[in-house]
């Protein structure tokens, strides 16, 4: 069965349009077969977005890692119109939809591109990285997202991640602690945990 982290989905197109409110912003989203949570914005993504604290961010761009059709990155772009937001995904169909959704919602402070985790990104340092990681892609993929995050963060940069307890929260929390020397549970909601680590070392 083809998964949402497939690079070039072959599922027959069935675009659907829906309206969704995130952080008091109303978005018009288009989704399709072959992408994650095609029917609506999934609960984990919503939990992460509602938990976001954008007050203490250092200067710099933000990264939506595994952006899908764009709810996290586009919400960040609305919340922080003075910031540039990079949005990446391995799935070309998701990237096409994210670009369409940015355009349809008149959001211009985003840069959307293909990247297999961090591979296609320039060696820039982000103020924060946000992800609802592709759990079904396997532990190695999610672990790479966490372990390599400090390399792509500025000093005091933050990694925000949402994961269900039953889908490996204790493991990934431990990995964040090891990678950063700190991890904090920001929010718990219906089995979902929003975790945050801060890069305190250069």
Short description:
This protein has 202 residues and is of the alpha/beta class. The protein has helices at residues 43-51, 71-79, 92-104, 139-147, 169-180, and strands at residues 16-22, 25-31, 62-65, 85-89, 110-114, 126-131, 153-164, 184-189, 192-198.
Summarize the topology:
Blueprint: E1 16-22, E2 25-31, H1 43-51, E3 62-65, H2 71-79, E4 85-89, H3 92-104, E5 110-114, E6 126-131, H4 139-147, E7 153-164, H5 169-180, E8 184-189, E9 192-198
Parallel strand pairs: 3-4, 3-6, 4-5, 6-7
Antiparallel strand pairs: 1-2, 7-9, 8-9
Helix pairs in contact: 1-2, 4-5
Please tell me about this protein's structure.
The protein is an alpha/beta fold and 202 residues long. Helices cover 26% and strands 29% of the residues. It is built from five helices and nine strands. It has helices at residues 43-51, 71-79, 92-104, 139-147, 169-180; strands spanning 16-22, 25-31, 62-65, 85-89, 110-114, 126-131, 153-164, 184-189, 192-198. Strands 5-4-3-6-7-9-8 form a seven-stranded mixed sheet, with helices on both faces. Strands 1-2 form a two-stranded antiparallel ribbon. Helix 4 packs parallel to helix 5 (169-180). The termini are far apart.
């Amino acid at each position: 069965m083809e998964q949402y982290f497939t690079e070039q989905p072959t599922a027959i197109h069935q675009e659907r349009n829906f309206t969704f409110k995130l952080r008091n912003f109303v978005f018009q989203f288009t989704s399709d077969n072959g992408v994650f949570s095609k029917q609506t914005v999934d609960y984990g993504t919503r939990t992460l977005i509602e938990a976001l604290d954008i007050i203490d961010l250092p200067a710099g761009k933000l990264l939506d890692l595994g952006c899908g059709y764009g709810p996290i990155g586009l919400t960040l772009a609305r919340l922080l119109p003075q910031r540039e937001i990079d949005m990446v995904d391995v799935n070309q169909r998701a990237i096409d939809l994210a670009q369409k959704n940015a355009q349809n919602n008149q959001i211009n402070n985003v840069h959307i591109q293909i990247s297999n985790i961090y591979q296609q990104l320039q060696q820039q340092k982000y103020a924060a990285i946000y992800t609802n990681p592709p759990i079904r892609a396997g532990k190695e993929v999610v672990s790479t997202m966490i372990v390599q995050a400090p390399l792509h963060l500025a000093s005091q940069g933050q990694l925000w991640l949402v994961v269900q307890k039953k889908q490996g929260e204790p493991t990934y929390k431990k990995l964040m602690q090891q990678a950063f020397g700190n991890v904090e549970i920001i929010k718990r909601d219906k089995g979902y945990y929003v975790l945050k680590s801060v890069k305190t070392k250069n």
